[in-house]
TrEMBL record:
This is Heme chaperone HemW. PANTHER family: COPROPORPHYRINIGEN III OXIDASE, RADICAL S-ADENOSYL METHIONINE DOMAIN-CONTAINING PROTEIN 1, MITOCHONDRIAL. One of its GO terms (biological process) is porphyrin-containing compound biosynthetic process. Probably acts as a heme chaperone, transferring heme to an unknown acceptor. Binds one molecule of heme per monomer, possibly covalently. Binds 1 [4Fe-4S] cluster. The cluster is coordinated with 3 cysteines and an exchangeable S-adenosyl-L-methionine. GO terms for molecular function: 4 iron, 4 sulfur cluster binding; coproporphyrinogen oxidase activity; metal ion binding.
Length: 372
């Protein structure tokens, strides 16, 4: 087992677009949650990982005492050889918290910047503002945690092409090691979703979104950030090793309320919300989870969806090693169709999306479905 994900489902504010498993931290049983989480972590068979990723929610919403408890447990119990990431919000990375992260071996931070426009940050209900972004990056650099990912979003309400240019300008100035730049997706059960339903909010159409995405790819390319996944950009030494576990369709543990994992041929989904998770651990000493066994056909489909997200695409040799057959035979008709459309590139070693294919990613992914 290469990777471990740990979920901290607490936030100091709830963002208007967010559909993750999270809850406002105020009055929550945070200490009991950490007890339960430690119990689940103790039950894992593996102790040595290449990557550990602590995400949320917002892990930096924990108090220094709570953070230290979690960090010291992780340090005593596990080893991590390559990449140990903590997600953080710019207004929450105090020197005290950063010292703790650094001292307990965290070597990468994923910083939720989202936008450099204060008006847009307000519409998103983010807890930070423009100044916080610079302060937090200053703190990170001072303490020597210079391997950070700047997490941005585009296609946000009220956003213009100028905002994209401004973000590119700050990327050039701040030089983060890694950039994730995701398009806003309107998910059910979010404030944005309800506002759109009531006609109180409008989102730009697909053409504008495509124009912004093209500018993001082009601008980051000009600044020396190769695109290694649909929404992720970095030189090869700073690509996210943890996230590549997902895209390479490899196994990982997911721990905490609502977290998911992939072990053997099973994907599992831990119980949520927080009180159910704590109860499950306290009463049964184990976490209640929904488990889905994947057939080989489904595993292959996932291999394609996930692998094609990466610029390098799906390695033919790896496909053959895993499934005992060649991708060219298994997907003969589909690959011919997609090559005719110029949505897929096949260099004999990898099968990957072309620029055009990236713009119609979902349509390409659907072509590989055989199980439905
Ligand atoms: S901080 Fe992150 S997890 Fe929390 S509400 Fe905002 S987007 Fe969701």
């Amino acid at each position: 087992m290469k990777s471990l994900y740990i979920h901290i489902p607490f936030c100091n504010r709830i963002c208007t677009y967010c559909d993750f498993t999270k809850v406002l931290i105020k009055n929550q049983p945070v200490d009991e949650y950490i007890d339960a989480l430690i119990m689940e972590l103790e039950s894992l068979e593996h102790k040595n990982f290449e990557t550990i990723y602590v995400g949320g929610g917002t892990p930096t919403a924990l108090s220094p005492k709570q953070l230290e408890r979690l960090l010291s447990f992780i340090a005593e119990r596990f080893t991590v050889s390559t990449e140990y990431t903590f997600e953080a919000n710019p207004d929450e990375v105090t020197t005290e918290k950063l010292d703790l992260l650094k001292n307990y071996g965290v070597n990468r931070v994923s910083l939720g910047v989202q936008s450099f426009n204060d008006e847009i940050l307000k519409v998103l209900n983010r807890s930070h503002n423009f100044d916080d972004i610079f302060k937090s990056i200053n703190h990170l650099e001072k303490i020597g945690l210079t391997n950070y990912s700047m997490d941005l979003m585009y296609n946000l309400p009220g956003e213009t092409m100028n905002d994209i240019e401004t973000s590119l300008k700050y990327v050039e100035q701040l030089k983060p090691k890694h950039i994730s730049w995701y398009s806003l997706i309107i998910e059910p059960h979010t404030v944005f979703y309800n506002q759109i339903k009531k006609g109180a909010l409008k989102i730009a159409d697909d053409n504008v979104e495509a124009e912004k995405y093209e500018r993001v790819m082009e601008g980051l390319g000009e600044l020396g950030y190769p695109q290694y996944e649909i929404s992720n950009f970095a030189t090869s030494e700073f690509e996210s090793a943890h996230n590549k576990t997902y895209w390479l369709n490899e196994h990982y543990y997911g721990t905490g309320a609502g977290a998911h994992g992939y072990v053997g041929n099973q994907r599992y989904y831990n119980i949520k919300p927080v009180p159910h998770y704590i109860k499950s651990m306290n009463e049964n000493n184990t976490v209640v989870k929904e488990t889905i066994s994947l057939t080989e056909v489904e595993q292959i489909e996932e291999e394609m969806f996930l692998g094609l997200r990466m610029t390098e695409g799906v390695l033919k040799e790896r496909f053959k090693d895993r499934y005992g057959m060649s991708i060219d035979e298994y997907y003969k008709d589909e690959l011919n169709y997609l090559k005719d459309k110029k949505w897929i590139r096949d260099d004999g070693i990898n099968v990957s999306l072309t620029e055009g294919g990236r713009m119609v990613g979902n349509e390409v992914f659907m072509s590989f479905l055989k199980s439905t």
